[in-house]
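User: Some background: our group keeps a shared notebook of sequences we're curious about, and every so often someone picks one and asks for a predicted structure to add to the entry. Today it's my turn. The entry only has the sequence so far, pasted here. Could you supply the structure so I can complete it?
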Amino acid sequence: MRLLRVFVVSLRGLWSYPVRTWLAVLGIAISTLLVVFLLSVLFNFKASLVGQVQSVGMQQIAVVPGKLLNSGKNIAQTSLSSLMSYTSVASTLTYKDSEDVRQQIPEVVGAAPQIETITSVRTANKNAETMYTGTTPDYADMFSMELEEGRFFTEQEAKDGTPVIVLGQSVKQLLFADESPLGQTVTIKGIAFTVIGVFKEKQLIGFNFDERAYTGYQMVADTANLQNASMLFFKAQSPEGLEAVRQKIAKVIAKNHGGVQDFGLMAPEGALHVIDTITDLVTAIAVGITGISFLVGGLGIMNVMLLTVKERTREIGIRKAVGAKWWDILLQFLVEAMYICVLGCAIGLAGAYGLLLLLHRMFPVLSSQFPAEIVLGCLAFAAVLGLLFGILPAAKALRIKPIDALRYE
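Assistant: Of course. Here's the predicted structure to add to the notebook entry:
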């Protein structure tokens, strides 16, 4: 009963000054909205990136031109400063590197070299820019790509240089809109290709699958006059022992390159490490910057409470004179401060959730998850903030002597 009475008295005291109280609540609400919205966006952004990486499995190893300057480590073991020292060089990767790895390492069950150039693809009355990409039939399985219609090219078609092509979703829409392109002819580099398939839309950080046109590796190398692969992709039998497979791949390719490791290798854990490192850094910066607004809001609460103590001096004196204990006075002002913080936090959470839903409508790739740990953590922090910024006003109220308070005008 005593706690309930204190709570009622606290509410009555606060809303005796509604404008002042609402301004304090608004300060906390804005601070909460900023912090929670930014944290939620970062959480959903990270979840989207991690989901994209995991959607292709955890058995892939990518070989890219360039290297870490501290090349004794792999990407999953490096710090952010080391990641920034990654140097890109002209590619020396070849189709032979890919074939040697597949033949010499039993744990590798798929190999897909990628050679590419930007060019135009034309139909009888339309044209579009595309990433003209040569690879092997393992490519589609490597990235868990699904066909909307048709099929991918075969090993024999790639070896024979058969002019067949598979379109990414964006290229298909630009050239054929909603019509089926199967069996239609498109022209690239003066070569007439027969469309045999169309991929479904596919999203993966760092790769644009939808704006590509895929055919055999050698076809692209010959028609675009290219010698080196832009990247090599390999698939291991299982995620276990991936680091050992990575080292074997590095040895085979380095041997082909005269013992020089002018390339880098990245497994899914390396991509996840990069994502974790960057998002953790951005989150820390965001919390640091927006956290200042919480401090300003807390100071606003303290100011409101100090004014409240001053204006209610006679009331405090009367309560003490009729037998109110010191903890009754202390609890009253702490509850008032906590009430402002928790109410402001709840309003801010509602606003942050609304903005998150709006952002999801504008960018569907970003989910609208509202993590429970962020919500509960924010409410707990608001309560603690109320305690911290309510202590000084409460202590000032405790020092008021009844006789002085009753004389106060």
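Suggested note for the entry: The mean pLDDT is 80. The chain has two domains: 2-52+274-407, 90-261.
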